[in-house]
Structures are given as C-alpha cells and as structure tokens.
Amino acid sequence: MYLLFVTFVIAIVLLGVHNHECKDYNLSASDQSLIDMMKHYLHTSRRKECPAQNKTSNTGVTYVRWGKKNCPKGADTVYTGQAGGNQYSHKGGGVNYLCLPNDPENGQHQPYDNDQVYGGEYELSSTSKPSGWSGGMSSKEVPCAVCYRKQRSAILMIPGRKTCYKGWNSEYNGYLMSDHKVYSKRDYACVDKNAEPLDNKNGDENGALFYTLRTKCGSLRCPPYTNEADVLCVVCTKSNV
Length: 241
What we know:
There is one protein chain. By secondary structure, the protein is α+β, with helices and mostly antiparallel strands. It has helices at 2-18, 29-49; strands at residues 60-66, 76-85, 98-101, 118-123, 143-150, 152-159, 168-178, 189-192, 208-212, 232-239. The protein contains 2 helices and 10 strands; from the N terminus they run H-H-E-E-E-E-E-E-E-E-E-E. Strands 1, 2, 3, 4, 5, 6, 7, 8, 9 and 10 form a 10-stranded mixed beta sheet that branches. The longest helix is centred in the first third of the chain and has 21 residues, at 29-49. InterPro entries: Ca-dependent_lectin.
C-alpha cells in the first residue's frame, strides 16, 4: 500500500512539472531531491522483491578427511598432507591434530626448545584396532586431506553414528580416535573407515598418536549405547538449496 502511495506521489510531481505553464521552468532543489529520493526507494524496493541471483553458488565448507590421501567424490582437494600435532607425552602446548601439507614452506631454524609439531601415527594392536583394520598399520604415519565441498552451508561431525540425519549429506564415515587416556589430552578426530598409511615406512617414532576409543557404560546410558564398543562417527554437510 505504501509503495502505491509513493508511486502516486512521484507521478503527480512529474506530471506537474511536465504541464507547468513556464516552458523554461527548472526544478527546484527540493523538487529534484524529492524525485531522487522516490526513485531510490522504488529501485531498492523492487530489488528486494527479486529473488537472489546465485548468491550461494560460490559458498561452501572445508573439512579434514583423516586417514585418507584424497577427498570424497564431488569434493575438491585443497591439499593433501600428513596428520601431526604435539608429542603425546607433552603436558603443555597445542592439543589439536593438524593436517600438515606435503609441500610446506619452511621457516628459519630456531635454537629454542619448544618443539610441538610432530608427525601422527596409528597406535593399534590385535586387541585395540577398529573392526576390519589390519594390525600392520600400527606405528604407520597417518595421512590426511583438506577438502572443499561447494554449495554447502554447514558442516558437522556426529560421534556415535555412521549415517547423517535427514537433510544432511554424508562426506565420509569412520571411527572416532584420539590419544590414549593416560597421555595428554587430544582432540577427537573422525578417521575414515577405510583408513590407509601415509607410506610403507616402518618405525615406532611416536608423536601425535591415534588410538581407537571404546565406550564405557555408567554415566553413558546403555542402552542406547553398548559397553566397550568402537565409537563410530560421520562427517556431514548441509546443502544450500
């Protein structure tokens, strides 16, 4: 209703100017200001009424795919690398895992003692490995890939599930892993169910360690959970459309 009124006012002003008896009539500053204001209002109002033109076409989300050297089908690979982080026995410093690129730009050597960036290794055994994994991956370094999924507005890692909830898209699923409970605290990471080693190098060099986790009933309600079970996980993204 207000828009119709504004349109009517502009029409009256323009009609009055056109039919004025003085052929050499010039608009006053206030007349021109009023016309400009009304034109601006109509322009912005019409623009608000028009649907957005691909405003979300270039948006997306990034995430790390732990345990794999590449990204899932449909996702762009930003870079591939090696999992790393602080050494498992250090009591201070960073606690999160890092996806370190395979083509670093190294800084200058420094003499001070504060080494916190180590490689990451799988810590597995015949009794402490995810179902289906080979015990031969123990002490092998962990690869990673940073992925970009276009036309997604949100990303979510869900612990305790291998499928996403309705309306969300699965990027990959796997096992929730972290450092051992007797060592320093570490972030949880969702490691791909089909995880692979970084290379075939053998050696127990430690660093940032990846241990399989188990559930513990009590404060964790069982059911719905099960005692001493692998903790599954899934990485989900939300579509823009």
